Structures are given as structure tokens and as C-alpha cells.
């Protein structure tokens, strides 16, 4: 059973830390949010009620249908109730209709997450971004946070403090066991108006990844203030104050040179504008940095793009594990790497034979780090190595971790993964500037468990969240992009100033290879998929970026 608890904790640890911290550090210390925990007061208890074991058998578990994490939490509760209490409950979505048998709303329900139920909405309405808890509303037990991450934390607390500590016939006593966890937040305002009165608006016709940057800003503001601002396009009617990401139908476009962006006052709100995605990312970083420094912010207007460092080239490349009888293909892969000449690269499917080829070809110029995934020294013992230029970077820290609820325990995996899977990380420092950043190379499973793997990796790298990050790899599923977006990372393709052949990355006809970033202090200048290169079954993905000085 501890296996389930560990996996749930792995989800929860990371998901509480979705914000960007955009002040650039040069080897700075990590900081964490201060959180307070409070028991629900007597006045807040919705209703004195109990659930006995005999009554529990009549309940149905109902999950919110908006996030895969709701399903994970509901399944976990079902499994634990069955193993602890020998009570097998059905799990259903919150869809309700009297027209289809089995889809009517049940009288007794355990509501997991933000469900389409009045009881769930009532419970969640009093919570902010990091808040979560559980309690009875009428005859229904609600276990929820305002986010899926909060719901997982509520579930963990419920399991450990209610199910495990049960004594006698009563499973849950609302008056004694209802619980709320509340975070501490900052009072944020812009131009004297509380941030809670704002919404985030982007143009319906997008050209500079305005929708993605709007989501990043939503997460940052929620982490800071606790308020989850509405996100909408400019096709919606104006209502109250707005933070507009990109020039909308409500704005007059400011005149900007190539090295300028705009963060300033506009009609009934704030406008972030730039000539391209990279400039808009600068505007985002400027606004967030200003809010962190001065939560009561008064805006300027046109801002010059900060001085940027030299352009860096990074490469993500699944080289394909097979080497026997393929000397010409192996040489073609090595030649591809040599021609691209990246400053840093993350590779996948590197067997011990591949590692020998790479070491022989590149070890004079590049530092090479990584470890095999299963320790067998067979063809399945694959590496996700990172190679970095020794003349440009100093290696501060590195390691290989397993995509499991216990990432530091070798050769472990999540239940739905066919193979042990790993990620290799490197904390590097630019010798010329002293800027530190994190680079990761990973390879998710091809059969299942990608969501769990993403969560476990994200939980581990939370310790590096104050640094700029790049996460490259073969993620084995286009849907992983949305999962990583939920954890506060965006594909470099979406924020690149220039895109070349931004299509499929796998010769089988899908986009499953990504280079994600947290956007901190970085300008992505170029994104390219070399889909004319057939040296492997995956195409090289090339990104160029600059750090702000």
C-alpha cells in the first residue's frame, strides 16, 4: 500500500510548484513557499454527519472529468478502500443524464475533484489555488482542491488520516475529521486594482503563442496571489480589468522596434505586446519579475529587450538503438551531430555500443554523463546521455534518476510502464557569464504510464525551479505536451521567434520528441525539425536560445 502513497506524494510534491521565478540567478540558493496548515473550524463544517462502513458500501466514487489526475486519484481511492476495508466502489465521471441508464446522479457520492455537482462547487468556492481539503456537504463527501494537484494532496491526507486511522464502525465523522489546508499568498495589485479583479485575454487569431503565454501567466499569478484568473479570447465581451497578452481587438498596436516590447497600461487594463513570440516571452518575464519585486505594481510602457548573451545551440536526438550491421547508419548519425555542432545535446536509445561510439568520437570536446536504465549491459540497458561542451560549461551537478515514485532507487518504474525509464540531468554553469541552468534528457515509455512518469520527473526537478530549465526527450506521446503545460513548462516550438519544419519528429508520422522550457530568462530564437534526415527513426530537433544577462 505504501507504493500507492509514494506515487500519490510524487504527484503532489511537484504539482504545488507550477510558478516561474524569473529573476536570473548565478548559482543562487533554492527557496520554497511558506505554507500553513489549518484544521477546518467548527463554523466552517458544512454539516455534522458520519459515514459508517455499512453506509460506505452504498456510495459511488464520482470524479471530475477535466483532468487525468482526477482519474488517478479516484482509482487510488477505490483500490485503497478495497484493500483496507474490502469495499469495492464503482468509479464514474460526473456526467449526468436521466436518458441513459446508470448515469443518473446518485444520492450517496464521494466527489473527487472539481465535479459537476452543487456540493463540489460549494466546497471548492471557498478555496484558493493551493488550498485543498475534504468534508461532507449534505450527504456527499467532497475530497478536492481547486486544482487536480490539490485534489491529489487532499486524497493523500484523507487516506493517511481517515482510512488508515479508522477505528470501529465509523469511517468518517465530519465534525471531527473535516480538514482544510490553506496556503499563504501575497496581496497583488496592478495600478492600485487588486489582481482578483483582472482576467487574462489573448487574441482569438493568434500569431505569437499568446495562448501559451497566457497560461503561464495564469499559473504565476495563482501561485503568488491564490486567485485563478479567467482566461478568455478577445471574442468575449469585455468585463472588468484585463491583462491582455498580445494585441487584441480592444487595443491599438504600439509601435515597436525589433528590440523592444511593451508592458504598459491600455484601455481598462494592461497590455503585453511584442513583434514575435520571443519578445512576448520577454514581456511575460518582465511583468512577473516586476510583480515579485513589487506586488503593488505601477507599469511603465515601452521596454527595451534586455541585453542577451551568445546564441546557444541544443539538440535532442533519438539515435535508434540498433547498431549491428548498420555501420553506415551509425556513421550518418555521428556525422549529423558533428554538422549541427550543438553546445549541449540530449540523446535517447543509446546502448553501450552507442556510448562507445559517442565517447570515441566526441569525448575530447564534450563532457558525457549518463547511466543505463536497467544495469543488464544488454541492448535494453539504454542511456539518455547529455553531452556538453567542456570549453563553455562547468558541470555543477548531475545524475540519472528513475521515472518512478522512488526516483533515486535504481531500476524502478511506475506500474504501467513496460520498461524501467530514466532521466539524466545536468546543472551547468556558463563559464563566460556564470549563469546556471538545468538540462535534462529523458525517454518515456511507449506502452503506458507517461503521465505518472512526467509527474515523478517534475517532482524531482522541483528542487531546481529557481534556475532556467530545458527538458528534451522522446516523450512517446503527443499528449505529453499538455501534461507538461500543466506542470508549468512550454514547448520551445511554441515560443520560438523562428520555426522551420515544425512538424512530426518521428518517421512513423507523429510529434513525440520535445524540448520544453520554463521560460526563465531565456529567448528562444530558433526551432527546427530536420525531417530530411533519415539516419534514425526519429528526426533531430534543434533549438537555439539566448540568456538575458
Describe the structure.
By secondary structure, the chain is α/β, with parallel strands linked by helices. The protein has 3 domains: 35-183, 2-Layer Sandwich (Chitobiase, domain 2); 189-304, 2-Layer Sandwich (Chitobiase, domain 2); 312-547, 4-Layer Sandwich (Deoxyribonuclease I, Chain A), CATH 3.60.10. The chain contains 13 helices and 31 strands. Strands 1-9-6-7-5-3-4 form a 7-stranded mixed sheet, with helices on both faces. A 7-stranded mixed sheet has the order 21-22-20-19-31-30-28. Strands 13-12-14-16-15-18 form a 6-stranded mixed sheet. Helix 7 packs parallel to helix 8. The longest helix has 18 residues, at 68-85. The chain is globular and about 70 Å long. It starts with a helix and ends with a strand. The model is unreliable at 1-25 and 27-47 (pLDDT under 50).
In the CATH hierarchy, the third-tier topology of the largest domain is known as Deoxyribonuclease I, Chain A
What characterizes the major β-sheet? 7 strands, mixed
Report the mean per-residue pLDDT as an integer.
86
Cα-to-Cα separation, first versus last residue: 49 Å
The CATH architecture designation of the largest domain is 4-Layer Sandwich
CATH C-level label of the largest domain: Alpha Beta
Helix content: 25-40%
Q: What is the topology, as strand order, of the major beta sheet?
A: 1-9-6-7-5-3-4
Shape: globular
Oligomer: single chain
Strand content: 25-35%
Unreliable stretches = 1-25, 27-47
Specify the number of helices.
Answer: 13
Give me the Rg, rounded. 25 Å
Kindly state the number of beta strands. 31
CATH superfamily of the largest domain: Endonuclease/exonuclease/phosphatase
Please indicate the count of domains: 3
Structural class: alpha/beta
Amino acid at each position: 500500500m505504501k507504493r500507492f502513497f509514494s506515487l500519490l506524494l510524487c504527484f503532489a510534491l511537484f504539482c504545488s510548484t507550477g510558478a516561474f521565478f524569473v529573476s536570473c540567478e548565478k548559482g543562487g540558493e533554492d527557496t520554497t513557499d511558506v505554507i500553513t496548515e489549518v484544521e477546518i473550524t467548527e463554523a466552517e463544517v458544512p454539516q455534522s454527519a458520519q459515514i459508517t462502513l455499512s453506509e460506505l458500501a452504498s456510495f459511488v466514487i464520482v470524479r471530475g472529468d477535466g483532468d487525468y489526475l482526477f482519474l488517478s486519484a479516484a482509482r487510488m481511492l477505490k483500490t485503497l478502500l478495497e484493500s483496507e476495508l474490502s469495499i469495492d466502489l464503482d468509479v464514474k465521471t460526473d456526467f449526468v443524464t436521466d436518458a441513459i441508464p446508470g448515469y443518473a446522479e446518485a444520492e450517496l457520492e464521494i466527489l473527487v475533484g472539481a465535479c459537476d455537482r452543487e456540493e463540489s462547487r460549494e466546497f471548492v468556492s471557498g478555496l484558493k489555488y493551493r488550498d485543498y481539503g475534504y468534508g461532507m456537504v449534505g450527504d456527499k463527501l467532497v475530497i478536492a482542491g481547486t486544482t487536480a494537484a490539490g485534489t491529489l494532496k487532499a486524497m493523500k491526507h484523507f487516506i493517511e488520516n481517515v482510512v488508515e486511522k479508522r477505528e470501529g464502525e465509523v469511517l468518517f465523522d465530519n465534525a471531527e475529521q473535516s480538514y482544510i489546508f490553506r496556503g499563504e499568498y501575497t496581496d497583488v495589485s496592478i495600478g492600485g486594482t487588486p489582481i482578483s479583479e483582472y482576467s487574462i485575454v489573448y487574441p482569438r487569431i493568434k500569431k505569437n503563442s499568446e495562448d501559451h503565454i497566457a497560461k503561464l501567466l495564469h499559473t504565476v499569478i495563482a501561485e503568488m496571489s491564490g486567485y485563478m484568473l479567467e482566461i478568455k479570447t478577445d471574442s468575449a465581451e469585455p468585463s472588468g480589468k484585463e491583462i491582455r497578452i498580445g494585441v487584441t481587438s480592444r487595443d491599438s498596436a504600439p509601435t515597436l522596434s525589433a528590440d523592444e516590447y511593451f508592458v504598459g497600461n491600455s484601455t481598462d487594463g494592461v497590455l503585453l505586446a511584442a513583434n514575435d513570440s520571443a519578445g512576448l516571452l520577454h514581456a511575460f518575464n518582465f511583468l512577473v519579475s516586476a510583480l515579485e519585486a513589487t506586488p503593488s505594481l505601477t507599469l511603465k510602457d515601452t521596454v527595451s529587450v534586455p541585453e542577451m548573451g551568445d546564441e546557444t545551440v541544443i539538440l535532442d536526438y533519438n539515435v535508434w538503438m540498433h547498431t549491428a550491421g548498420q555501420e553506415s547508419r551509425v556513421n550518418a548519425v555521428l556525422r549529423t551531430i558533428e554538422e549541427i555542432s550543438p553546445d549541449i545535446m540530449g540523446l535517447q536509445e543509446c546502448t553501450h555500443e552507442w556510448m562507445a561510439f559517442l565517447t570515441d568520437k566526441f569525448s575530447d570536446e564534450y563532457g558525457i554523463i549518463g547511466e543505463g536504465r536497467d544495469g543488464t549491459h544488454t541492448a535494453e540497458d539504454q542511456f539518455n546521455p547529455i553531452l556538453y561542451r567542456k570549453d563553455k560549461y562547468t558541470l555543477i551537478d548531475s545524475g540519472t534518476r528513475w521515472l518512478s515514485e522512488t526516483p533515486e532507487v535504481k531500476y524502478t518504474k511506475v506500474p504501467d510502464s513496460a520498461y524501467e525509464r530514466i532521466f539524466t540531468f545536468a546543472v551547468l554553469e556558463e563559464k563566460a557569464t556564470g549563469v546556471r541552468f538545468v538540462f535534462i534528457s529523458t525517454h518515456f515509455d511507449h506502452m503506458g504510464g507517461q503521465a505518472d512518469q512526467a509527474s515523478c520527473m517534475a517532482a524531482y526537478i522541483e528542487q531546481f525551479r529557481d534556475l532556467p530549465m530545458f527538458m528534451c526527450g522522446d516523450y512517446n506521446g503527443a499528449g505529453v505536451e499538455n501534461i507538461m503545460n500543466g506542470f508549468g513548462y512550454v514547448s520551445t516550438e511554441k515560443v520560438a521567434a523562428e520555426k522551420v519544419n515544425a512538424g512530426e519528429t518521428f518517421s512513423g508520422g507523429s510529434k513525440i520528441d520535445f524540448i520544453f522550457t520554463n521560460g526563465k530568462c531565456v529567448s528562444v530564437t530558433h526551432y527546427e525539425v530536420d525531417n530530411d534526415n533519415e539516419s534514425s527513426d526519429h528526426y533531430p530537433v534543434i533549438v537555439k536560445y539566448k540568456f538575458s544577462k
